[in-house]
Amino acid sequence: MRPRKNRVMLVGTTTSGKTTLCQRIAKDDMSYRKTQTVNVVGGFLLDTPGEYLERVHRHSYLLVCSYEVDVVVFVQDPTKPSSLFPPNFNTLFQPKPCYGIITKIDIATKEQIETARKYLLLAGCKEIFLLSAVTNEGVKEFLTAMGHGDDE
């Protein structure tokens, strides 16, 4: 029996790598573009604007968007010195499982990656994936875990 193909919502700050990951998965040209509203990519990924996390009064937007998905994924840029994911942020989305992605591993140091991992664990991530949407490292593993391994 094939694993169920999960609908996935990406949550992270502006420039954390959510849209770049979506472009990689959709095989689009890689280019920076500001996400202004929720975009559905590949029929299963919800790419949310960074402001939904960055502005506390917009966290409710994330909650509303999460009703349409099976899994919530917190995207952390390890090159940023802090995180906007509060401790136990996963409880906002219960009972949906929350996973973490550490992006930009091609340019981050081991120390930065370890700090990002700690942020995501404190936020309540069940499992954490390391990836680079630029080099494609870790993308296949993430897709497989989300039930989309044959889509890449």
Question: What would you note in describing this structure?
Answer:
This protein is of the alpha/beta class. The protein has 5 helices and 6 strands, in the order E-H-E-E-H-H-E-E-H-E-H. It has helices at 18-25, 51-54, 59-66, 110-123, 139-145, and strands spanning 8-12, 39-41, 45-47, 71-76, 98-102, 128-130. Strands 2-3-1-4-5-6 form a 6-stranded mixed sheet, sandwiched between helices. Strand 2 (39-41) and strand 3 (45-47) form a beta hairpin. The protein is globular. The two termini are 19 Å apart. The mean pLDDT is 91.
The number of distinct helices, counting runs of at least 4 residues, comes to: 5
Distance between the termini: 19 Å
The major beta sheet can be summarized as: 6 strands, mixed
* Strands, total number: 6
Structural class call reads alpha/beta
Which sequence of strands runs across the widest sheet? 2-3-1-4-5-6
